[in-house]
Amino acid sequence: MPPQPPYGPPPGPPYGPQQPPYGWYPPPYGWYPPPQPPPQSGLAVASMVIGILSWVFVCFYGFPGILAVILGHMARSQIRAGTHRGEGMAIAGLILGYIAAAGAAMFLLYVVIASTLA
Tens digit of pLDDT for each residue in 49-65? Predict the structure, then answer.
């Protein structure tokens, strides 16, 4: 007596060869997808956020402004290298940081002069 064939459907695709969906055409030969833009610079985001916060937390005597300037320059070097994007945020952080640091320096200068004259 010959062996009994196994139960179930035969191996292979269940409904034969599949067709692509309606309206879909394969890409032409030599076609490549468009290049992805570089990632957003986290340093630029941090520079802008800390530059904004340096106006809120003026009581730290310009330290957040200095930090925003440092991060802004580091972000600009990444952006110039072409590995990241976010030029506008880096510049915003630089401007806000420089203004906050200058304001803190003028305030400290005023305090020193007022304390020596009193």
Answer: 999 999 888 777 788 99
- Characterize 3-23 residue by residue with b for buried, 16 or more Cβ atoms within 10 angstroms of its Cβ, and e for exposed: eeeeeeeeeeeeeeeeeeeee
Q: Where are the domains of the chain?
A: 42-117
Q: How many CA atoms lie within 13 A of 118 on its CB side?
A: 6
Q: Compute the C-alpha angle 99/100/101, nearest 5°.
A: 90
CA 106 to chain centre: 33
Verdict on whether the full-model pTM lies above 0.85: no
Which of the two residues, 37 and 28, has the higher pLDDT score? 37
Q: Which segments of the chain does DSSP mark as H helices, in order? A: 42-56, 63-81, 87-117
